[in-house]
Amino acid sequence: MSRPGAAAGPAAHTGTDADVVVVGAGAAGLSLVRHLLDVSSPSALSVAVVEPPPGPVRSPERTWCFWEGEEGAGAGGSGAGLGAPVTASWRRLLVRGPGGEALGGDSPRRYLMVRSADFIRAMDARLAAAGSVTRITGTVTAVGDGPHGARVSGTDAGGRPFALTGRWVFDSRPPRVLPPAHTTLLQHFRGWFVRTAEDRFDPGTAELMDLRTPQPRRGLSFAYVLPLTPREALVEYTEFSPSPLSVGEYEAALRHYTEHVRPLGEFTVTGAEQGVIPMTDGRFARRAGHSVFRIGTAGGATRPSTGYTFATVQRQSAQVAAALAAGRTPLPPRPHARRHLAMDAALLRALATGRVDGADFFARLFRRNRLDSVLRFLDGRSAFREEVAIGLRSPIWPMARSLAELPLLPRRPPAAVPRPGDPHQRKAHC
pLDDT per residue over 366-421, tens digit each? Predict the structure, then answer.
């Protein structure tokens, strides 16, 4: 059992090891701990964090991207509000249509990138200085209610069994099996960090979607280009489809894009990352027991139509921390509005059936609507009137048919989801 920080004493609730036990130390788990430290005094809540040992179970390094908001960075891009440095930010956003049409413009909010290694390093330092936080390295094998809250058991890095009792337990581990759904697609991708021999990028412009990539028969593909300097960028190939590609297929798609669609000239690949994000209208349970809750992707934080997760995790964590500080039951709030989930379900169905052309749909979304309205919609912050306007400018009949038939469709059996260590590693992309 590894405890880098100062060990906390037993929780005030008799028979427990901590007031709060957080399972997992990725974006969702560490974000919850950060918000707990922000709202409570050093001795108010005792917290135990169970993180996986180095190896295939631990998530690889990745990037998290999101629009600036209350969870964003300070004005100078330092990430003071987030507790970690921001790698890069962009005010101008670009989408290229299938024919090369440039869409987008200046955004009212910056688009931010945070590297997971920087976030974890900042949290390591903060947790080491927090006397109320205990850290445990181990693999969790069971989580369930107990007589004094909930019990977490597993084996530590040395193979020895351990058990913790927490008044409340928050499980942030990615789901191994997705819930039954009308439609399930995967957003899967592989990205190269590249360094070019000549200036090829505009560091002030994030290219959210280049839809000139070859399109699958049903679903969507696009390239995603986030410049860091005039000669450095993350270039990513992404698909929305039922199953991931092989590494060789991703590499071929990236070579085609960087040689023929958006030629970069001579360049070096300095790093790579790959992942899978579920896009499903399945219902994720936020509560797994009287004292056990699910957060992050496991609690439905991932937006079904876009895959964006990070900003939702921050909002969810802040509300959970506020409930705990006030002595209320810390049930994580619903991560997305019901009307947004209904629209997302219709879009997933329309894409999966081929009723809408994915590339044309997203090009039309940015071409026919105000950029600030589209960004609010993608981030789950749009007003109803904006959503009506966006809907009227979408392919109305295919979307209406897809929405109308959903109640008549059975929810299909759950599917396995690739996890860290599998051939297709999960990345909490945004």
Answer: 999 999 999 888 888 889 999 999 999 999 999 999 999 999 999 988 666 665 44
83 DSSP β-pair partners: none
- What is the SS3 assignment for 166-186? EEEEEECCCCCECCCECCEEE
∠ CA 263-264-266, nearest 5°, is: 125
pTM: 0.88
CA angle 411, 276, 33 (to 5 degrees): 95
Is residue 50 exposed (0-12), middle (13-18) or buried (19+ Cβ within 10 Å)? Answer: buried
